[in-house]
Amino acid sequence: VVGFIWYASFAYSSSSRDSMGNAIPQKQAWETRNHFPIKSEPSTVAAVCIPVRHLCLKKDIQRMFYEPKDGHGLSKNPFNSLVVPRPIGWISSIDRAGNINLAPYSFFNAVSYRPPTVMFSAGKGQIEDDGRKDSLRNIIETGEFVHSVSTWDTRESMNESSRTTAMDVDEMAMAGLTPVASTLVKAPRVKESPIHLECKLLQTLDLPNTTGGDTYTVVFGEVIGIHIDDEFIRPDGQIDIAKLHPIGRMGYQDYTEVTGDTVFTMNRPGHGD
Which of 10, 104, 151, 221 could lock 29 by a disulfide, CB 3.0 to 4.6 Å apart? Predict the structure, then answer.
């Protein structure tokens, strides 16, 4: 069905009652329209209960649907705002000539416990003739890299290190950061970060591209060494996430943070109290 998306109408239910127990007549409350000629799909009617005067509004919504190959019709691509939040891969590497590279990657995550493995996805490089980002080129050449956890305190320097520069530019120095030697790999760690994962390259995977010039290569790395600042280890042996205060990537130019107020615990069913 071709139509308009995000058409929402709200109406008071005729069975709703106010704080005095009187029936509230049904009437139109408000409606909004955002016009985008995209395929849309009606959803089921949902009830939205509002505590004030115990009113209950019924909401009729049309749900947007699109096939990425056909475009989305929005002002910006929504995809990376839908898979959120994402940890930031702050990847340091070094080339054969000893040039240090540091760059944050929006598509990053852990993918297994044993062996502990992380991945990040590198898009097309914009400067060098081979079309590769410096991180990817260095890692393929040397077979190793380091991930440094990005926290609230390092947010500005992390963002500074995202600049597009020539391969001989040291982004760690450019961002005012301090390189420290790793234990098992040649790539340096970011001293200002409290956690580092030393990694050796397992494999790379070139993703199929059907939409033009964009290319992405996924890098898988086995974590062979882990550094954790002692102050972030609690007496019970667990990581103090609230004190660590990591940040994550959202869509567009947005980020998020993890604090003691945003962390909550749920025990998995069947796994004890």
Answer: 10
Other C-beta atoms within 10 Å of 8: how many? 13
The SS3 of residue 160 is helix
pTM of the model: 0.77
- CA 113, distance to chain mean position in Å, is 20
* Alpha-carbon span 264 to 86, nearest angstrom: 18
CA atoms within 13 A of residue 23's CA, in its CB half-sphere: 6
Give the number of other Cβ atoms within 10 Å of residue 201's Cβ: 16
- Asked whether the beta carbons of 27 and 12 are under 8 A apart, the reply is yes
The CB density around residue 158, as the number of other CB atoms within 10 Å, is 25
pLDDT over 80 (residue 103): yes
CA–CA separation, 157 and 88 (whole Å): 13
What's the Cα-to-Cα distance from 2 to each of 19, 60, 77, 262, rounded to whole Å?
A: 43, 17, 20, 40
Given a contact cutoff of 8 angstroms between Cβ atoms, the answer to whether 192 and 152 are in contact is no
230 to each of 119, 149, 194, 246, how far by Cα in Å? 26, 15, 9, 16
E strand or H helix at 58, and its extent?
strand 55-64
- Residue for token pair 């049309």: 62
Q: Which residues contact 209 (CB under 8 A, 6 or more apart)?
A: 215, 216
Pairwise CA distance, residues 11 & 182, whole Å? 62
Residue 180 structure tokens: 């420290």
Dihedral of CA 248/239/101/110: which sign?
negative
Residue 246: CB atoms within 10 A of its CB come to 19
Rounded Cα gap, residues 211 and 65, in angstroms: 19
Whether the bond between 78 and the residue before it is cis, its omega within 30 degrees of 0, is no
